[in-house]
Amino acid sequence: MSRKFRVGVIGAGIASRHLSGFGWNKELFEVVVLCSLDADRGKALCEEFGIAEYTQDAEAMIARADLDIIDICTPPSSHFDLCRKAIEAGKHVICEKPLFGSIAEVDEMAGIVAKANGPQLMPIFQYRYGSGLQKLKMLIELGLTGEAFLTTIETHWWRGPDYYAVPWRGKWATELGGGLLGHAIHAHDMLNYIHGPCAELFSFGATLVNPIEVEDTAALSVKMKNGSLASLSMTLGSREEISRLRFCFRDLVAESIIEPYTMGRDPWSFKAGNEEHQQKVDAALARYEVKEDGYTRQFELFHQALVRNEEPPVTLADARNSLELVTAAYHSQRTGLPTSLPILPDHPLYRSWLPEDAR
């Protein structure tokens, strides 16, 4: 029988989706306590998901000896301190995106995890596990795509004044960034998941849709380390919401559905250059084993990693790639120049991409 890990959740917003993911893995996880400063939402989630305990004391919860995992679903500015406290308390950690507010914090956390020598930290990038993207990953591994040429990604969503009525949103100090950090980050992680890290990018960014501090529209041109190119666009001013990913390889074009929050899922299209190769692609796709997706699959894989004492399915290095892209984009927007990656300690935005007056 698989070991069942006991979980404490902090937060009562996106936490509901995490709780659904745990609920689909009841044989692997048991959520025993939820912590939230919002008593109404927190207690409602406890009732909905059958969680026995509710608390407002995160530090006391983290210190409990009967918990294995702390799941952090709070606003971004609180992530680093909560992760640190949980790791130092010997707990495994799951943390929502965006993970932290700088590359320096990612690197510091890597040292904290290494020093703790046991606890694992898994950032959330659940969109990776849609069947469409997983099929593309399989075709690449089978050598059926050929070399990569160009990727285009559109994250065109709508966020109006009601969204920014939540006090911590739209502000550098608490949300840590705009649409590049909080919205398009999933699609951009999918770029890194398929192609690896970025090598250089140029970006324009603007605040056009709402009277907020952070960007809500951006256009990026990217050179990947593998030599391919990518064009990324993000806006929170699209009245018709779509997300679209299109990957062009020598022997194949893969294109996602356009549903804005499920773009990793089927049905994707996979078009080969000729009938003979299309038959090979179709035969491989016919053998694909469909699995759960989203949080459910990421949590399932995390359980597997913990039991086997392996690294988590999403790592600090993965989060670093995604935050490097964001850091480089902000640097390019402010300098008007292309920015090279990786972002190292001598980079001016290594310790924070926030504007000087927001640090």
Features:
359 residues, alpha/beta, 12 helices, 14 strands, 24% strand
Number of helix segments?
A: 12
Strand fraction: 15-25%
Spatial separation of the terminal alpha carbons: 49 Å
Contiguous uncertain segments of 5+ residues: none
Sheet/helix structural class: alpha/beta
Rg from alpha-carbon coordinates = 20 Å
What profile does the largest beta sheet have?
Answer: 8 strands, mixed
Which H/E pattern describes the elements? EHEHEHEHEHEHEHHHEEEEEEHHHE
Average the pLDDT over all residues and give the rounded result.
97
Tell how many strands the DSSP assignment holds: 14
Biggest sheet, spatial arrangement of strands: 13-12-11-7-10-9-8-14
Describe the structure.
With 359 residues, the chain is α/β, with parallel strands linked by helices. Helices cover 35% and strands 24% of the residues. It has 12 helices and 14 strands. The chain has helices spanning 15-23, 39-49, 58-63, 79-88, 103-116, 131-141, 172-175, 179-182, 185-195, 275-286, 294-308, 316-335, and strands spanning 5-10, 29-35, 53-55, 69-72, 92-95, 121-123, 148-158, 198-206, 217-224, 229-235, 237-249, 252-255, 269-272, 339-340. The strands form 2 sheets. Strands 13-12-11-7-10-9-8-14 form an 8-stranded mixed β-sheet. Strands 3-2-1-4-5-6 form a 6-stranded parallel β-sheet, sandwiched between helices. Strand 2, helix 2 (39-49) and strand 3 form a beta-alpha-beta unit. Helix 4 runs parallel beside helix 5 and helix 9 (185-195) packs across helix 12 (316-335). The protein starts with a strand and ends in a 19-residue tail after the last strand. The model has no long low-confidence stretch (mean pLDDT 97).
